[in-house]
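thought: fold this chain, then report.
action: predict
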Amino acid sequence: MKNRFFSINGKLKLLIVGVVLLVAGGLLAIFYHVFCGEVDARNYERLWRACYNVEEVLSDYLLWDMRETFLSEEYQALRTQTLETGDDTPIREWMDQHAGAGLAGELENSAEELREMGYTLKWEYENVYQWLDLIRDSFDLNSLSLQYDLDGVTYNLVDPNEDLFWPGSVEEPLPEFEELGDNAMIPPTYSKSKYGWLCTVCYPITDSESGEVICFVGADIDMNDIVRDRNAFFMQSGVLVLLLIGVAVALSTIFAGRVAKPITQLTRAAKSFSGDDSGLTKDKVISLDIRSRDEIGELYHEIRSMEERIVNYTDHLTRITAEKERTETELRTAAGIQTSMLPEIDASITERTEFELAASMTPAKEVGGDFYDFFLIDSDHLALVIADVSDKGVPAALFMMSSKILLNYRARLGGSPAEILSDVNEELCRHNPSSMFVTVWLGILELSTGRLSCSSAGHEYPFLRQNGRFALYKDRHGLMVGARTGVRYRDYEIQLMPGDAVFVYTDGVPEAQNAQDEFFGLERTEETLNAAPQQSAESILDAVKQTTDSFKGDARQFDDLTMLCMIYRGSSR
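observation:
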């Protein structure tokens, strides 16, 4: 599936808008966090100030009296009775008939005198009730109440939000306050109960003389009001963020267009250059009116410089390619010439019944430095030659052809193999400015007797088959032909019987390497010769070639691989 194109213009717009969103979102989060802290701090301050006001306006003796009264067994029994009827009249009447003991001690009057003066328990309760109601409304609280903890149980005393059945009741325990201790000072704490979602503080009121806790003030603020204040700020900030996004989109459209325009021009010009199949010339190099002194300007100059180098390189590559094609053509011609220099097994060879002959050469490069030769010197003498020049490629091929011609010409003049090698060595040394040399094995077979006269100029040992098996024949070696003048070579003779064979080769056979850098070696060569079909010389060469190719595998051939095999069939005379 083709990849979808997304322009730089669009990417820049998205980038600018994205950055503005990230910055605005981060600032919004920071401001919201700070604002929420300030909102919470103001509300906490309201709660604490309301508690302080309660402590200031309510006297200790009133609080002592109400706590002791509402927790007394007499009042609890009365409250239980009135709860069954749902009528609080008995509680009101009872409160009218009782004056606070604390007030009596404070004013030094009897209970009867206090009742006549109107200072009854009902008066105390209503007095506290009104003060709590006033303070609650002044600080805009959800509720403001007096409570007292006794042995882990919280008793309600006064709450302007409740009726007369509430004093003396047991407060429902909340998990948020269970482990904070009796009558402890509780910092702002969030809780959810039947009263709603509240933020609550508890402030203990202590006796001014003894320091004992009389009761504690519980102040509540509805959390929904706090959240409402937070959300109002968030909505206002959201409007500001939308305005910033709008400004960012407008700026990104202007800025991205200016930045992307020269890049778009560069892209079109580069596509035009790369997509032109008619030929890359200097007049097609990119040329735009881009003068910006930034990365885009540098990119333009780099692209222009690169296209100029591509044009120059293409011209150079075209010339090199033409030269290479000419060289390859010449090498193919040279390879054809070299192949034509090697003798063919024609009728003059195949008609002879005294011997059977096969030879092959596989060069490592287009042309090789190995060669073989065979020819009849006269009707009773067959010359066999195999040689390996010290180099590869065209120089070795030229040296090989001159060496082959000299050996062929000199052998036809007569003489022993050693004499032939000596004369050819002198001739090659006389005209050898490149100091090349060649290893040669030369054998002359007398067909009527099977006597094989041989001489070696530093060449590989031949393999000789006698009594049906091939074995390495370690002959006498002389110095390579062309190395220096004045060299004398030695002859040796082998008496061949009908069925005997000679296998000669260059070092490309034993030195063939596989991917593990192992050599084929002389032992594998001997095993291959003895395992090969023995019916013909051609079958022997095919077996060696197939075995070495299988051994090398995909490894590169580094040396020419040349072989010659002659089977002596015996004289017909």
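thought: worth noting. DSSP finds 14 helices and 15 strands in the chain.
final: tokens above.
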